[in-house]
Amino acid sequence: MNQFVQNMTGMGPMTDQVVATDMLIAAKAGIKNIATAISESATPEVRAALQQQLDQQIRFHGQMTEYMMKNGYYHPYNMEEQVRVDLAAANTALSQANQGQQMQQ
């Protein structure tokens, strides 16, 4: 995000953690949506095409999960650490929002 957009939105810089988290959430939503589409499709050809997309989306989700775990952004096996990371991210977001509001005043 460039400085102009940051100033206009009152948001700070996008970090790797923010982008990776957004991509992981989008991958999860994509998996759910494709699975729903498969269950509602009428032809075998459409189901097969959607199944390929679902398989690809599941692989991507796995890659994003591994990336986030490797970089310390995601701790699926350590709830206390995950809560600590989530609270730190929330505090950073609140701090950036407050800074943005102060800049606008």
UniProtKB/TrEMBL annotation:
Main location: other
Listed GO biological process terms: sporulation resulting in formation of a cellular spore
Any Pfam family hit: Coat_F
InterPro entries linked: Ferritin-like, Spore_coat_CotF-like
Keyword list, A-Z: Sporulation
Cell compartments where the protein resides: Spore coat
PANTHER family for this protein: SPORE COAT PROTEIN F-LIKE PROTEIN YHCQ
Similarity section: Belongs to the CotF family.
Protein name: Spore gernimation protein GerQ
